[in-house]
Amino acid sequence: MAQSAPRRIIVNCLVDAALAMLALPMALWLGAPGVAPPGAWWPGALLASALLLPAMGWPLGLARQYWRFAGLTDALAVAAASALAAPAFWALVTLTGAWHPGAPRFSVLHAMVLMFVLSAGRVATRLAAQRRAAGAPDTEVLLAGGADAADLFIRATAADPTGRYRITGILTRRSRQAGRRIQGLPILGTVEETDAVLERLRQEGQLPALIVLAGSDVQGSELEALLDAADHHGVAVKRAPQPTLLGNAARPDEAPRLELRPVSIEELLDRPQVPLDREGMARLIQGRRVLVTGAGGTIGGELSRQVAALGPASLTLLDHGEFALYEIDLELRERHPELPRRSVLADVRDAARIRRLMEELKPELVFHAAALKHVPMVEADPLEGMLTNAQGTRVVADAARAAGCMAMVFISTDKAVNPTSVMGASKRLAEMYCQALDLAGQREGGMRCITVRFGNVLGSTGSVVPLFRRQLERGGPLTVTHPDMRRYFMTVREAVGLVLQAAVVGTAAMHDLPALREGGIFVLDMGNPVKIVDMARRMIRLAGLRPDTDVEIRFTGLRPGEKLYEELFHGQEPPRATPYQGLLMATPRTGDAAVVGRAMDELATLASTGQVAAALAQLGRLVPEFTLDEGSRRVSL
Q1: With bands split at pLDDT 50, 70 and 90, how would you rate the model's confidence at 1?
Q2: pLDDT averaged over the chain?
Q3: Which domain holds residue 195?
Q4: Which of 263, 292, 320 delimits the end of a domain?
C-alpha cells in the first residue's frame, strides 16, 4: 500500500502535465481566435506548459491530491498553481524571444483556462466515484444533530468505500438553520420536528430507512421524543461514530468502513450535566489521602476514577472481591501511573483489620461504598446484609474517626426509605448511625460523616439494564416483575459527580444548610421515576426489534422485599431544597451515637450467632418503619 503512493503521485503529475498542454491551445484560441503561432513554436511551448504547472503545484501538494475526494482545499491549491504557472509561462516565452501571445492579460485568461481544465478533471473523477458507489443498494439516511457534526458525517460517508448510506436530508437543533443546505443537502427542520418531517416525507414517498444521530448533543428527553417519532413511522435510529473516528473516516488515505452503533439506554435516560463545583472538588481531594471502600463495584469504581483524576496524595482501593479489585487497580494503573495507589483485600466487617488499616493509612477522606445491594439475595441471607451494610458501615466509620479522618462519605440508597427489605432496613440503620456520628463530630470538632442517598445507577452489576441486555442476546423473553414497577435511574457518572459535590458542600458549606446541622442527609435529584416495562420495550426497539412480536416481555411477580415504587423521602422528612443544583436534603430522625451503637452491637451479636428471628426483630425495633413480612421471607441458615 505504501509503495503505491509514489506511483500515484507520478501519475497525477503526468495527468496534470497533459491537462496543462491541453489548456494552452484552448487559451490561445479564446484570446485571439484565428491567430496561430508558427509550427516550430509548439513543441517548446507545450513542453514548457507541461513542466511549469507540476513545478508550481508541487509545493502546494497538487500532485498528492486524491482526486476522488477533491474538496475546497484542493480547489484552492489548483487555483494557486494556475495563478503561478500562467504568468511564469508568459515570462518564459517573452524572455527567450520566442513568439508570445502579446499582452500580459493573456496570463489571466491562461490561468482561468488552466484552473477550469484541472478542476474539471477532479470533479469528473469524484462524480464518477459517486456514481459507482450509487450502483450499490443504498440506505437512505436522515441526519439529526448539530451542523458541524452533520458536515463531518457527510464527509465520512463520501469517503466510505462501501457507499452504503445515501443522505437525503438533515435535522439540526436550531430552527434558524431550516431551509439552508450543508454540502448541498437540505436542512428539513429541527430535531424537535422529527415527527412532522417524517410525516411529510412519508406523504412524498421519501421516508428514509434510517435516522443517524450525528454528534452526541441529542440526549435525554429530546432523544426520547425523536425515538418515539421514529418508532411511529417505522424508521430505525442509530448513532454515528465518535467525532475523532469520523475525522479519520473522512481522510482519503484511511477510507475505513463507516460503522454505526445502536443508541444505548444510558444515552436515552441521561440528563443534561448538572453544573458541578470542580474547583471545590479539586480543593477537597488534591494532596489528601483518600480511601474508597467497595472500590471494585460500580459506584466505588467510578468514585475511584473521578478521585484519581483530581490528584490525591494517595488513593487506597479496598474491596472484598479479588477480581473486581484487580480490574479497577489495573485501570487506574494505566490511566494514572504516577498516582501513589494501594489495593487492599479486606472485609469491612473485620473490625480489627479495618482498625489496623486506618491506623496505618491515616486517610483524610473515606468514601464508603461497600455494601450488599441485591434485594432478593439479602432477603435470602438477611444476617449477611445486616453485618455488611449496618455493622460494616459502623466499623469503617469508627475506625476512620479514631484515625483522625477529616470526613467520611457514606453511600446510601432510596431503599432505606420506608424499607420493606432487609437490604433497605440495614442501610437505614447505617444512615442513622452516620447521622448520629456526624452530629457528634460537629459538637466535638471531629470527623464529619456525610450521607448521600440515591436510587439505581444505570449499568451497575445489580441493575436491570445488564439483565435485559443478556436476555436480548438470547432472544428473550425480557422478565419484568410487575407492569407497574417504577424505579429512579441515574447514570453512574452523574451520580458520582453529585456525591463528590455533596462531599464538598458537606465539609465546607454548613452555614448555607441549616438542615445539615440537624443531621440532614443529601438526596440526589433523580428526576422522575421510570416504569421498568417501558424501559424493557425501549431496549427492544433500540435493538431494532418489536416488543411482544419479536421479543416477549414476561411478568414474573414481585420478589421478597421488593416494592412497586421506591421513595427518596420518608413521609415525615419532606425534601428541602439546597442552593446546589442536583442536591436535595432530608432530615429524618436522629439519635445519640452511643445509644445507636449499643443497639447495633446487640444486632451484630445476634447476627453473628445465627439468631435470624431475633436479629430481624431487633432490626425492626431499630427501624420502626421496616415492614416485616415473615410469610414471604425465605431465610437461608
Answers
A1: very low
A2: 83
A3: 136-263
A4: 263
Based on the fold, state whether residues 89 and 149 are members of the same structural domain: no
Q: Is 560 among the domain residues?
A: no
DSSP 477-524: PEEES-TT-EE-EEEHHHHHHHHHHHHHHHHH-GGG-GGGGGT-EEEE
CB 407 within 8 A of CB 506: yes
Closest by Cα among 227, 270, 209, 163 to 493? 270
Instruction: Give mean pLDDT, residues 537-559.
Output: 85
Q: What pTM, to 2 d.p., does this model score?
A: 0.70
> Is 293 buried (19+), middle (13-18) or exposed (0-12) by CB count in 10 A?
buried
Q: How far does CA 405 lie from the centroid of its chain? A: 34
The position carrying cell 480489627 is: 352
**pLDDT-derived band at 417, boundaries 50, 70, 90:** confident
Could you give the number of structural domains in the chain? 3
Q: Domain with 581 in it: what CATH number?
A: 3.40.50.720
Per-residue pLDDT of 314-368, as tens digits, reads 999 999 999 999 999 999 999 999 999 999 999 999 999 999 999 999 999 999 9
Non-local (6+) Cβ contacts of 609 within 8 A are: none
